[in-house]
Write a structure and sequence with these properties.
Blueprint (H helix, E strand, L loop, with lengths): L1 E6 L5 H12 L2 E4 H10 L3 H12 L5 H17 L3 E4 L5 H14 L5 E6 L2 H11 L7 H22 L5 E5 L4 H18 L5
Parallel strand pairs: 1-3, 1-4, 2-3, 4-5
The structure holds adenosine-5'-diphosphate (ADP).
């Protein structure tokens, strides 16, 4: 199974991606985790992207595309993936679709984790992950989400493989709702799941 999770910072993508990966035996790939790992390991890539990540700005599309290609292709070959945080812009979606389609590894379902802004801010402040979880940076990341990722939701809107769930519910309830929706979708899908 090949899935995308789309949601604002704090929407619970990481938590849900982990559970889906375990449930379906697929690989969880978080662009944010991979980027932060590069920053921690002081790789050349890490040094290029540190200021973007720390300030809550998007890392340039080309850099993210290059970083994601190998792990996504490997996961698709190994049984599937759940992507968390990627694609995050319409450009990333368009570019990765072209690559994935050529490999027969295109996405089968996209889940929008929908959470009201007040709840997002509350969760992000209590998470306190570090340099990108201060109040000013959180505010900026939410603005970046509105400007760059909400157009991605609009771009995908109306596709039968895209659906929204109420991400303000407790994690177990969100998980079960996603699984139920995926089952329904699989019943109507032509391709193998
Ligand atoms: P959150 O969803 O809580 O913002 P992530 O871990 O997904 O956290 O992302 C953290 C940071 O990593 C983002 O603020 C951004 O700087 C960078 N990032 C992650 N994914 C992408 C992506 N697909 N394109 C560009 N930048 C990204």
């Amino acid at each position: 199974m090949r899935l995308l999770l789309i949601g604002a910072p704090g929407a619970g993508k990481g938590t849900q991606a982990e559970r889906l990966a375990e449930r379906f035996g697929i690989t969880h790939i978080s662009s944010g985790d991979l980027l932060r790992q590069h920053v921690r390991d002081l790789t050349a890539l890490g040094q290029t992207i540190k200021s973007y990540v720390d300030q809550g700005d998007l890392v340039p599309d080309g850099v993210v595309m290059d970083m994601m290609r190998k792990p996504v292709v490997a996961a698709a070959e190994a049984g599937g993936y759940v992507l968390d945080g990627f694609p995050r812009t319409v450009e990333q979606a368009k570019a990765s679709f072209a690559v994935a389609q050529a490999l027969g590894a295109e996405v089968q379902a996209a889940v929008h984790l929908d959470v009201p802004r007040g709840e997002l801010v509350r969760r992000l402040l209590s998470r306190g992950r570090g340099s990108d979880d201060t109040e000013a940076v959180i505010d900026h990341r939410l603005q970046v989400y509105l400007k760059n990722t909400v157009p991605l939701l609009e771009y995908y809107a109306g596709r039968e493989w895209m659906f929204a769930v109420d991400g303000s519910q407790p994690p177990d309830a969100v998980h079960e709702e996603i699984v139920a929706r995926l089952k329904k979708l699989a019943e109507f899908a032509d391709g193998p799941w």
